[in-house]
From TrEMBL:
Entry keyword Transmembrane helix: yes
Protein source organism: Candidatus Propionivibrio dominans
Pfam families for the chain: MNHE
Keyword field contains Cell membrane: yes
Membrane topology note: Multi-pass membrane protein
Location of this chain's protein in the cell: Cell membrane
Taxonomic lineage of the native organism: Bacteria, Pseudomonadati, Pseudomonadota, Betaproteobacteria, Rhodocyclales
The name this protein goes by in its record: Na+/H+ antiporter subunit E
Transmembrane segments: 12-41
Family designation: Belongs to the CPA3 antiporters (TC 2.A.63) subunit E family.
GO cellular component term of the entry, any: plasma membrane
GO MF entries: monoatomic cation transmembrane transporter activity
Major site of localization recorded for this protein: membrane
Keywords: Cell membrane, Membrane, Transmembrane, Transmembrane helix
Length: 163
């Protein structure tokens, strides 16, 4: 019965904790709305990934979230600095990043992580050739961007989800 009500308990808990953090849920109404969302959202998204990858290393996931949050702050600063300067200094590039990940959900998650980092946008996850196409605002050395995404994000996702 509980498995039917809450098919993905970790996702439900994450939704609830994010709701509390975002809304600063000090009232009973906000808390109840967060609980309702924590039950409904995982149920609505169940058809999108019936075989969700299993979180194998939760502590590594927490460490990764901290690194990712710091990367967002640093990238925001870097993008702001580059935008204020002369546009001739920018080296925009389309970069193809070969993926070791073979799970469509995790490849899409990696693309989302890249897109959330200012200065880069993932354009496509080619699941036939397992390549992530990324547009970078400033990538004078495309190989450095490839190495950063693979070492900093893809490797962490492989470790977190044991794949």
């Amino acid at each position: 019965m509980l498995k039917q009500l809450i098919p993905r308990p970790v996702l439900s808990l994450t939704v609830l904790l994010l709701w509390i953090a975002i809304t600063n849920a000090g009232s009973l109404g906000l808390l109840l709305l967060g609980l309702l969302l924590a039950v409904i959202i995982p149920r609505l998204t169940l058809p999108f990934w019936p075989q969700a990858p299993r979180l194998a290393n939760p502590l590594r996931a927490l460490r990764f979230l901290g690194v990712f949050a710091l990367d967002i702050v640093v990238a925001n600063w870097g993008v702001a600095r580059r935008i204020v300067g002369p546009s001739e200094r920018l080296s925009p590039a389309l970069v193809e990043i070969p993926l070791d990940l073979r799970d469509p959900f995790l490849a899409t998650l990696l693309g989302s992580i890249v897109s959330l980092t200012p200065g880069t946008v993932s354009i496509d996850v080619d699941q036939k050739h397992w390549v992530l196409l990324v547009h970078a605002l400033d990538a004078p050395d495309p190989q450095a961007l490839i190495d950063e995404v693979k070492n900093r994000y893809e490797a962490a996702l492989k470790e977190i989800f044991a794949c």
